[in-house]
Amino acid sequence: MAYDRWTSLFWLALSVGACVKSVFLGIGAPNKPGPGLVPFGASVGLGILSAGLFIQAMIKKGEAREESLFTGKNWRRILFTILAIVIYAKILPLMGYLVTTFFLMLFVFWLAETKKWYWILFSSLAITGASHLVFAVWLKCQLPRGILSF
Amino acid sequence: MGFFDSILLGFQVILDPGNLLFCGIGVVLGTMIGVLPGIGPTTTMAILLPVTFRTTPTESIIMLTGIFYGAMYGGSTTSILVNLPGEAASVVTCIDGYQMARKGRAGPALGIAAWGSFIAGTSAVIGLMFVTQPLAQFALRFGPPEYFAIMCIGLVAVTYLAQRSVLKAIMMAFVGILIGAVGVDMMHGTQRFTFGIDELLDGVGIFPILMGLFGISEVLENLEQNLGSSQIYQAHVKNLWPSLEDWARAKWSIVRGTILGFIVGLIPGGGVTLSSFISYAVEKKVSKHPEEFGKGAIEGVAGPESANNACTGGCMIPLLSLGVPTNVTMAILFSAFIIHGIAPGPFFIKAHPDIFWGLIASMWVGNVLLVVLNLPLIGLWVQFLKIPYRILFPIILLFCLIGAYTSSNASFDLILMAVFGVLGYLMKKFGYEAAPLVLAVVLGPIMEANFRQSLVMSQGSFIIFFSRPISGITFGIAALLLISTIVPFVKRRYKKYQEFKD
Predict the structure, then answer these.
(1) Distance from CA of A60 to the nearest CA of B (A)
(2) Which of B51, B167, B431 sits opposite A52 (nearest CB)?
(3) Is B51 helix (H, G, I), strand (E, B) or coil?
(4) How many other CB atoms are found less than 10 A from the CB of residue A116?
(5) How far is B171 from chain A (nearest CA, A)?
(6) Interface predicted TM-score of the whole assembly (ipTM), two decimals
(7) pLDDT by residue (tens digit) across B385-437?
(8) What are phi and psi of B191, to 5 degrees?
(9) Which are the contacts of B476, defined by CB distance < 8 A and separation ≥ 6?
(10) Is the distance from CB of A15 to CB of A44 less than 8 angstroms?
(11) pLDDT tens across B231-280, in order?
(12) Is B348 left (phi over 0), alpha (psi -120 to 50) or beta?
């Protein structure tokens, strides 16, 4: 794969970081294994294989096609969805489940290019209400109530 | 407790209205997601795991298992009618199933798939009933080195059977072990890889990982494309009961598929997809008319569909008797047990006979329900394909969010889920598989504990892993698996080098 040399470098960097951290944690001795022993072994293994993948990718450099994996894809929709999840996580404890989820649903239905506004509104209300009934009322999950207390 | 008493106990458990309801919910959901492409049983089980927090352990396990084997039934419907596999195990059913449908024989194809699934599913439950207890008894002899060896072979087998690059699969297993190491070390109380974040002291929760890598990444991948509805099959399906000639041709395929699927389920790393592919290859090999395969051979539907259903029973045996999940779906079921404070393993049947025998009885009842639900309601299941993804994805997203949040009641887990969602999406893009990573996250801490206990037992000698017969043989098999992966690669490189030199 054309991107293997970049991804292998990422894993290699991660393995080096984990390796150094494991040494600081303490590898111990075989009869008294330390907390860093297993992470050290795993990071060394990951490092060796990442280096192997990098070499393999460099050898095959000419053979691999360099086309972008994101060309023609609706990557903006992906980016907005991730952003929505992060904002949802930040606002949820403050505004509570019902309000935050309703606005998230409005946003994702809009993102999904649902044409009619009343359909977006109705779907968001229905899904938020139904999920609250199932999880908070029936299954008694503790969903945050927020400053508005619902 | 005698054998018949145990069976009676099982039926007593499953006939409890609550358990029966969850069995029904499980198989209906399983069939539905089996029909729907873009969401598989593993993802659904992961997403619905938090639903089981407030239910009893028996209800949870019965429902999740129902989703698993229910999806095997549902997957065949769309494979046969619209050449669209709802889940990976039904990919191979498309080959001959769809050709049969094109020749106007959709009814017999659906009929033999359902009956084959039923026969295989119920036979596998009998196998599960008889094999689990002796294996659990045998597992009482296991110590830390044996458990470490079994978990190692589980991880090696998952990477060996990787659908893409084996090298990348092993890398993901190492990443999984590293993620599993985050948190406070149980033996020394040292903080590992927490970076001063208090929420990581208990480790990275399995739920944000599962929701992110399976649920969110699948949503993100589907969001790349047009979110419209699928074209669906409009023709009327007739003659669901296969003819005597169909039965004569398919009967041995069903028997072979059942045995093969059950055995593949027992092997670490073996899963429903692998079982159906092997079964198809075997059927083609033993058939007197191999030229008919790919053109609508009923054996090509009966064998794989039986195999993937038998596999669901087989792969539960290592989990219930040894406490070792052998594939990612079983790792999710393992998490469900752990949530309820139940440790599957050698003492499981003795400590929780109601759950074990209730599960066995539920699988029988569930299989009967599936035949009843699937055959007469085929038209209804196909209608599910009409649901556009723009309606489905907000619901999947919400289930993931609720699941990740309610697992710890902390919004930090939502951020973690988003991180793993992006990681899972990029992993798909760059050809890395999530299954070895998840299995390593689940097995990693247990493996580490057993590894360190073994070393303490042997006073630092690594010989302990090879001097004890069970762990020695297991490591031998693992080494053979690894060598068999490396040798062809080295041979290919050497050949290329020779060509280059010439």
Answers:
(1) 11
(2) B167
(3) helix
(4) 9
(5) 5
(6) 0.92
(7) 677 778 888 888 888 898 888 878 888 999 999 999 999 999 988 989 888 89
(8) -80, 130
(9) none
(10) yes
(11) 545 556 667 788 888 899 999 999 999 999 998 888 776 678 888 888 98
(12) alpha
